[in-house]
Amino acid sequence: MSREGADKVGWLTSAAKAADGKKRLIAALKSVRENSVVPPGLESILRFYPALKRWAKLGRPSGAAFSCAWFHQPVRKGVLTHTLKRCATLVAVLASAALAQTPSPCACGNTPPGRPAPRSLKPYTGAPEDLRPFSKYTTPYFEFYQDLIEYNGAARDISDPDLKDVNEVRIGVLAPLYDHPDQVLGNRMLNGANMAVDEANAAGGYCGKPFRLVTHNDYNNWQNSSAAAGIAKDSAIWGAASNEAVRMIYDDKVWAMLGSISSESTHIALRLTLKAETPLVNSASTDPTIPETIIPWYFTDLQDDRVQGYTLARHIYTELGLKRVAILRVNDRYGRFGVIKFRDASRRLGHPVVIEQKFMPGDADFRRQLQVIEDSRVDAIVLWTDVGPAAMILRQMRELGMKQRVFGSHRTISGTSGDELVKLAGPAAEGFEAVFPYDPTRTDPRWLDFNARYEARFHEKPDHFAALAYDAMQILLDSICRAGLNKGRIRDALTGIENHKGVTGDMVFDPNCKNIAPLFLAHVHNGSVEYRRITMEKPYARVGEDGVQYAGPALADEETGNLQIGVFGPHADEIVHSAEMAHLLSTINGKGRTISGATISLIAIPSQLSWGKASDELVKAVYQDHALALIALDRPSSHLAEQIAVKSFIPVVAISSDRALTTTNIPWIFRLPEGTPIEQALGSLAEAIHRAGPNREKIRNLLASGTAVGGVSFESTGDPR
């Protein structure tokens, strides 16, 4: 604002004070003057300063008028005060808006984090004892990768550049963007990174300087000529990734890099960071040997193949009890290095991999490998590949009539709603399970908001390549702002991160700067993908995973004069004595479902009575009337019947959706979903009595066998099949 403009604002401040004395308006105008900010429209008002000032000197004359173009109306001398009020009020509003838009002093780099505090994690990655190498035989005299990687160079001492000489803050991106089989994945990764950068720039960037991504294509180092690539390579060889990384650092002068998907290119870029002392952030490569180079410039927010392989092995061998497992993998570095840790874990858990088959990138026919696996008589197959090949393998297994359970690495699932695997494989995907870095079905606002913004911009749901790149870029941008424009301090800010809450969820970083948060298990069920948390830890107790068995004394048969079933629940008396139930019992007893001429009858135990009286009636039905089984009609009745069953050894069919009933290791509870007609529960119990006889133990064993009884079958845990 010019001195003359400031004087005009000052005069209008005084005029406003004289006109209405509002301190808020005076303070706003004073702030405009002190901050030298002229909001849009203020100059238009100030153009009328001379006329208003001359008018003020006239005092209170009458009859004359002048034209104020700002209000587009004549203003009489007698309304000077009103005019000043209106002008001053408008100035105050515009001034306040200008102050709101005035950037606050930049805090980036003002308080750099300093050297990260030493920290350790023992054992490496927090691996359980039974998954550690040679843990059964010896204790190593030294173990690597347990302590924070140190950097003791001089990069921290380099002075930050003068902001006047900085036009933009550049960050390099190395990703397969074209002429590459993974170019779709690379562009999704770039989308996520771009979105994070654009949002940071909208919030002010780095002290008003914009962040900018400088992209370089990660060429296909293996020179595949496949349908997926769409073009045969003729010049891109191993040196391509190195050349691109060199250009980013020395020509583009980036402050940090993001990339890549392929582990070989990431390895090459990481070697260069050791020379150029430039941070490298990754969100897509799972090769565990990358951070094991002990190069202090690396950071990744994706759980690596060690965590994935150990977690899969724990699920397959310990949780599910499978023993003979085959591997089917893509024959590239991702597949070759990815399965190593799963093979190691399989051997340590006592079940070495039976057979390993591989296929070339771009292959579409896997029948030969599948036939070899089928001939090996395995229980399960582990796939280490991408969504497309995984879907084709599942379809071809279905064509060949193969029934083995199938598991996969994280790249066999896309993590989007209406997952790509389900779309491509259809019904053949049913039952497929894979590890995944986060739960894409959760409903916390931050995740949902990110999905909405991403879909609005890119017209598709974000997969894990996009979502994890967004998180990684946000972490990097925040580290740059905290550290300032100094690569050594940016590295310190990244290395010091132990926990982070991103849009994909909670992350935990070990001393090697890699995310080791527990994974999720994706399970295809009824045409959709469900997720649950899963860890590599050995469970300290097993409750119901292998089914629930009755191991008590053998039970004697009840007297066969009258075979009774207790019905316990709200208004049980009305239900038992209804015409419909009488007709059903007549049908059951008339179809030969009796033993030695005995008939089935019902005992009504209404639960709407006082709880003590209802309990007494239930105990009487079990101990005095010798009921062979109970039907509980709702959740409260089911839980009380469960307690009686523990003591009296009587099977209970509970009509309730409360899964807690079947997770307490009680072998007498069989659950049907809430809303199941009582006729279905009665029909199942009546047939069980007819087939097993008047013996509670035998009735229980028949229900737990998985055999369909009266149109109903149960798991050994008591849950419905």
Describe this structure in words.
By secondary structure, this protein is an alpha/beta fold. It has 4 domains: 3-101, no CATH class; 168-228 and 235-303 and 460-509, 3-Layer(aba) Sandwich (Rossmann fold), CATH 3.40.50; 307-436 and 520-534, Rossmann fold (3-Layer(aba) Sandwich); 562-704, Response regulator (Rossmann fold, 3-Layer(aba) Sandwich). Helix content is 39%, strand content 15%. Strands 9-8-10-11-12-15-16 form a 7-stranded mixed beta sheet, sandwiched between helices. The chain has a 5-stranded parallel beta sheet with strand order 4-3-5-6-7, sandwiched between helices. β1 (65-68) and β2 (73-76) form a beta hairpin. Residues 1-9, 15-49, 55-81, 90-103 and 223-236 have low confidence and may be disordered.
The profile of the biggest β sheet is:
7 strands, mixed
Q: Tell me the number of helical segments per DSSP (H or I, 4 or more residues long).
A: 23
Indicate the CATH class of the largest domain: Alpha Beta
- Biggest sheet: strands side by side, in what order? 9-8-10-11-12-15-16
- On the 0-100 scale, what is the average pLDDT? 83
CATH superfamily of the largest domain: Response regulator
Distance from first to last alpha carbon: 78 Å
Strand content range: 5-15%
Number of domains: 4
Q: From the alpha-carbon coordinates, what is the Rg to the nearest angstrom?
A: 37 Å
| Structural category | alpha/beta
CATH architecture of the largest domain: 3-Layer(aba) Sandwich
Low-confidence stretches: 1-9, 15-49, 55-81, 90-103, 223-236
Helix content: 25-40%
The rough form would be described as elongated
CATH-defined topology of the largest domain = Rossmann fold
Query: Count the strands?
Result: 21
